[in-house]
Design brief:
Blueprint lengths: L1 H34 L1 H8 L1 H5 L10 H11 L4 E7 L6 E7 L2 E7 L5 E6 L4 H11 L5 H27 L11 H27 L6 H11 L55 H10 L6 E4 L7 E6 L16 E6 L5 E6 L5 H14 L4 H29 L17 H13 L1 H30 L2
Antiparallel strand pairs: 1-2, 1-5, 2-3, 3-4, 5-6, 6-7, 7-8
Helix pairs in contact: 1-5, 1-6, 1-11, 6-7, 7-10, 7-11, 12-13
């Protein structure tokens, strides 16, 4: 039974690794790139982030918004990102699914602009999450690779100790040595890798949406409810814990009419950003923060301080997160959600995501993540090398299929992982069907061979 369990793990471990290794290489390399995106962008986009237009005329922020929209026909400003010195102010302009970043100096004069799709941070992020292709299928595929990586780590841990793979033999050949290194480094990084993958799954397409729904339906477990209509504007710079919160509505002569859209809503009665800034300053809200425009006539100005914004210079400490709502007509403060208001799950996310991205505790966090990523790449390389040294010419040399009765511990282990990671569980059904089909085909082939004798 014990040998059967080991054989089951070995076969599934082998084929899982064979299938997802290309994705793991992409995820790991893009993850390393994203670890240092702030450092890279501070140098790569120095003129945009810290440059000066050398124009003497001082514009108001609202005049700057109008000039930016005039410069990019069809685009409307959805966010104003106020950063600490020496960073320039950043505008986010949207036109359907397209976005541009516009940078303003101290005079609110335009310094330059970027296509949001092709900034270093967004290229790394989109490659990491969707192979820079996008779409639900690709997102699920990447998430599935992450789920199976957890299986690889845990099954590898079992095989390492069960097979006594860490013991150095007196006369090791190249394959045995490579296998021992594969097992040794894999064992060392199992806990940090499972932790990194788990925090990465927090905002994945399938698992992430399930967790977000759990958080939204349970204020104690997730985050507090605001009993109003949810915003429809883009919310990528809002803290994770409040991105799906129902926001308050504004009071005004148009406030009882329902409507909305994918771009910001403006009218003559709407408070200017310049005046809103005065309200923000009066509340002692310090930079950095983002101002998200209302998306309809009932909407509100949302002012957010987030620890996982993905914008260079915008992140704050998890405990400093806050989401504030202001009436779009009067500028009156309506409501606020702070870190202290989060439930257990939301607080876990708020700490977990910056840890995953490598900026929770500065350079030590980056270096720790980098070391784990490099070690994981080494595990992949040693795994491939072990297989190549074992493989016979012209053959796959996969672990043999076991036709005996499947072991109960193996089934229980897979069921537990399938419950924790539903997408992994769904893929297991496909794997079982394939294995059953192959086993049946091999059995029939064997019977035919015996009949012809």
């Amino acid at each position: 039974m014990k040998n059967l369990l080991y054989s089951r793990f070995w076969r599934l471990h082998f084929f899982a690794a064979l299938c997802i290794t290309p994705l793991l290489l992409s995820l790991t390399l893009s993850g390393i790139g994203y670890l240092f995106f702030t450092d890279v962008e501070n140098r790569l986009y120095d003129d945009y982030f810290f440059g000066n237009s050398h124009k003497e005329e001082v514009l108001t922020i609202d005049e700057a918004v109008e000039k930016a929209e005039a410069a990019f026909a069809g685009y409307s400003t959805t966010k104003v990102i106020m950063l600490e010195e020496p960073y320039n102010t950043r505008l986010t302009l949207s036109n359907g699914n397209e976005q541009k970043y516009v940078f303003l100096d101290d005079q609110n004069q335009m310094v330059g602009s970027q296509d949001a799709n092709y900034t270093f941070s967004n290229i790394m992020r989109n490659t990491h999450s969707s192979l820079f292709i996008g779409g639900t299928f690709v997102n699920y595929l990447v998430e599935l690779a992450a789920c199976w990586t957890i299986f690889l780590l845990l099954s590898g841990l079992y095989m390492t100790f069960k097979g006594d793979l860490l013991k150095k033999r007196k006369s090791e050949n190249k394959r045995q040595k490579s296998k021992r290194y594969h097992a040794l480094v894999g064992t060392i990084i199992t806990i940090p890798m499972v932790m990194f993958i788990s925090t990465g799954l927090l905002w994945s397409a399938f698992q992430g949406s399930i967790l977000a729904n759990i958080a939204s339906e349970s204020p104690t477990f997730g985050y507090p409810l605001l009993q109003q209509k949810p915003p429809t504007s883009d919310v990528s710079e809002i803290p994770w814990a409040t991105r799906q919160l129902e926001a308050p509505t504004s009071e005004g002569e148009h406030a009882q009419h329902h409507g909305g859209g994918s771009v910001r809503y403006t009218n003559d009665n709407q408070m200017t950003i310049a005046n809103l800034e005065k309200e923000i300053t009066a509340m002692n809200i310090a930079k950095p923060y983002s101002i998200i425009y209302p998306s309809n006539e009932e909407g509100v100005y949302t002012v957010a301080k987030a620890s996982n914004s993905g914008v260079t210079g915008l992140d704050v400490k998890p405990t400093d997160e806050a989401t504030m709502y202001f009436d779009q007509y009067s500028g009156k403060f309506i409501d606020q959600v702070n870190y202290e208001d989060y439930g257990m799950l939301a607080k876990f996310f708020t700490w977990g995501i910056p840890l995953h991205e490598g900026h929770l505790f500065g350079w030590p966090n980056k270096l720790l993540n980098l070391l784990v990523c490099l070690a994981f790449l080494a595990v992949i390389v040693w795994g491939i090398r072990t297989w190549i040294l074992r493989r016979k010419k012209g053959e796959l040399s996969a672990p043999p299929q076991i036709s005996h009765k499947i072991s109960l511990p193996f089934v229980i282990f897979l069921i537990i992982l399938g419950i924790i990671m539903p997408l992994f569980g769904a893929s297991l059904i496909v794997v079982v069907l394939i294995e059953y089909f192959i086993l049946g085909w091999q059995t029939k082939k064997k019977l035919r061979a015996e009949e012809t004798k």
